[in-house]
Amino acid sequence: MIDVTVGDLLGHRSTGVRTVESIVRAARRSVAQRDEPADTSQASATDGVNRLLECLDGRDRKVLLAREWAPAKVTQECLSAELGVHPTWLWRNESRIRSRFAERLGEQAHSQVRQFAEDLGGRLGVYVPRSNVESEIRRFGVEPTTEAAWLLLYVAGPYRERDGWFEKIPEDGGQRVDAAVRDLYRTEPMPALSVLTDVLTAAGMRRAVVPAYLDAHGLREIAGVYVPSSAGLSDKVAAVLKANVEPMTADEISTVVGENTSARAVLKALHGNAAFVRTSRTRWTLADREVSAYGGIAQELKNRVADAGGRVAVRALLDDMLDAFPDIKESSIRTYLATLAFVVEGGMVRCRRPEDPWPIVSSLNTVPGASHRSDGCVQLAIPVTTQVLRGSGLSIEPPVAQAIGVAPGLSRDFETDHGPVPVAWDPAEPAAPNMGSARQLAHAVDAELGDLLVLIFDPVAGTLRADGVEGKITG
């Protein structure tokens, strides 16, 4: 109506001069206010928002606050009762009220509010914790719990809070960043912080928010990479080894993993897992690094003897082993060289050949507690130790193994009422010959710690039984 004259309006019936003049003046003032440029150099965000709020119809403002701006939406039923209108009126007019607000916001006079909101949205990103939202709003001189703050968040997003995090609704901020992280972990189970940061910022998150997101979503830093707190110990061990080029011991790994993880638990995770390889007696690394797997002292000795052409000086072999495996003692290596798997002659060592005779084994009566019985069985009295009661394997003397029909390089199962008990004589094993657990046999005759448990081997029938105890060990 800015170009309409008083004369034009007087042409309408029942219209007086004073009324028409008032209408024209009001219309011209409204248009002038709409086209007036905002002074963004001096006014604060609060001033700009308040000026916008003052331009709104009172009922429109209440509807917008209750249904759009406030952190918790008021239901249409409750709001209509508060406004004194029928719920149908609110249902029909709510979208119109939003449209009127959008039109008012788009006026030049309120460009300052639009600019403040755009700046705020840029500083918040698509997903941000409440603490960051509050600090950023205060940077604009607005208190976070005021109507002005809620209006700015609406215009900037809109943003909605869920579980302490504000999400930019039009961009599905929370789902967007969560999906980006899930996709990353499908291809990279142990990403570094830099990789996670790149992925999250590409999804619209502000860089400063990344640490809070990782913490809130259970992504824990271990040795420079991030794994879910719910991940199994094997994944955490893999993360530690990935971050370390050099192989590590179970003690070292458990220290880095933390969370009161024991070295024993780490060893349990390492053993039998194809993702890991043992590189020495105590050290492990990732199998995909294609390093040589440690085969044990005996196998490493055999490999080196073979590489040397079948014979090598003992001293040179010792030095080579100690250099390759610093966590092995020289005394341990010499113990293995003294087994039946090797032959040492004149300071040189070679592997035992099939044609080499086995050393002569002493008679059974040289072993304390061992004897032949008249029925052809072999009797052996063994001390009941904590190892026996725990179920550990037991070393037996070579004359005993020979008497029950187990020669070097062979093994045999002896049947008991509780299942088979193996007896084996591995030429490369310092503790050989040995037998399996005697715990159930000891329990069957109520043997206690310190007793002498009497075992009866039948080499013909291949059976084994406990024949009671012979009293306590003394001395």
TrEMBL record:
Domain of life according to the entry: Bacteria
Protein name as annotated: Uncharacterized protein
